[in-house]
């Protein structure tokens, strides 16, 4: 009991805790820098290639390129169809549809089956800043919900 009150021990524990936090910060800094730089870049530039496209290109062995088309050259009915098919509540939320996520979680708890609740915004963010389909960390996180 008295050892816990020893200032020397408490100081060592606090110092070790600060060191651990510094290491975590140094490990997370490049990821955060990548995200911030990506957000800044994609805010002002129309991307001809995304990290996901580069990954898919390596998998296929051939480069995938896209050429953007001005929005006013796309038929309004096609634009509406894409939005409705991908995110029917697009105009009713600010990027994350919390009601759909809550309903999907309730469905999973009731039936054990997963269904999607991602919005267009979430899909774009995933494709720009995360890797496709898994890898150990994403699969492990996904498997906890299955």
Q: Could you walk me through the main structural features you see in this protein, from its secondary elements to its overall organization?
A:
The chain has 2 domains: 1-45; 48-146, no CATH class. The chain is an all-alpha fold. The radius of gyration is 22 Å and the shape is extended. It is 63% helix and 0% strand. It has helices at 7-44, 51-60, 76-86, 98-111, 120-129, 136-144.
Tally of strands:
0
The string of secondary-structure elements, in order, is: HHHHHH
| Structural shape | extended
What share of residues is helical? 55-70%
Strand pairing plus helix content: what structural class?
mainly alpha
Distance between the termini: 44 Å
User: Which regions have little confidence, pLDDT < 50, spanning 5+ residues?
Assistant: none
Count of discrete alpha- or pi-helical segments spanning 4 or more residues: 6
* Main sheet: strands, sense, barrel: none
> What is the domain total for the residues?
2
Q: Supply Rg.
A: 22 Å
| Global mean pLDDT | 80
> Which percent range describes the beta-strand content?
under 5%
């Amino acid at each position: 009991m008295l050892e816990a009150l020893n200032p020397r021990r408490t100081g060592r524990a606090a110092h070790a805790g600060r060191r651990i936090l510094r290491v975590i910060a140094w490990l997370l800094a490049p990821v955060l820098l990548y995200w911030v730089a990506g957000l800044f870049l994609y805010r002002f530039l129309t991307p001809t290639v995304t990290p996901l496209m580069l990954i898919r290109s390596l998998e296929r062995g051939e480069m995938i390129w896209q050429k953007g088309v001005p929005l006013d050259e796309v038929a309004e009915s096609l634009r509406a169809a894409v939005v409705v098919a991908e995110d029917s509540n697009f105009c009713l939320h600010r990027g994350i549809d919390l009601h759909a996520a809550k309903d999907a979680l309730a469905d999973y708890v009731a039936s054990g089956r997963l269904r999607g609740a991602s919005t267009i915004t979430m899909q774009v963010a995933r494709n720009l800043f995360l890797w496709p389909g898994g890898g150990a960390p994403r699969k492990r996180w996904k498997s906890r919900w299955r």
